[in-house]
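Give me the fold.
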Amino acid sequence: MSNTTTRPARTVLHKASDRGHANHGWLDAWHSFSFANWYNPDRVHFGNLRVLNDDTIAAGKGFGTHPHDNMEIITLVTEGALKHKDSMGHEGVIKAGDVQVMSAGTGVLHSEFNPDGEHRSKLFQIWIFPRQQATTPRYDQITPDPSERRNRFQQLVSPDPSDAGTWIGQDAWIHLGEFEGGRTTEYAIKKEGNGVYALVVSGNATINGHALGKRDAIGLEGPGELKIETGAGGAKLLLIDVPMEVK
């Protein structure tokens, strides 16, 4: 007889208005999970997903040089651009639509600025706990083809260097999809022990029976799948599939 027990599925709902919010003038930031001066004991992380920040950076402003370690950091620029410079020797501009990965490992210093003196930049920044501590820091940047996420989920990040998109040192997947109105689709959790956190970037959708609007989110602590029906105007959805056990 097997002693293996299956953890029952559980759903968490996070409304956009319940996120943490900090407006520093040059930075307008919304936090899905506890971050900086905002702390909610019920929203510290979702499994190994530690941070999901929704940031707007004013023209010509940004983050000065600061450190990170032992974290997989993924940045999705959605509007404008972001100039990056780090202690690994990388320097360049991340444009709207680009995906940047920085595996901080043993430690890295970097800065991020909006290089446009007239227009804002917008981005999502995701932090995921790594599978292993103290690995060699690593940087990557890709420009996914937006046509590959029309009415389907496009893989941006996975654990496999040979798979589509880029990769990180964790058994996690990130997908982005842009769906027309009135469509139905499903997403199955990738790995046993994982859960999936779905954010409605824009539009509206009903996910597993829950009506969600712009920036609302639902987390399914597997096993299971998401059943998604988009509203009349369609929806853009960000999915983050991560191990639920934090080691």
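DSSP finds no helices and 20 strands in the chain.
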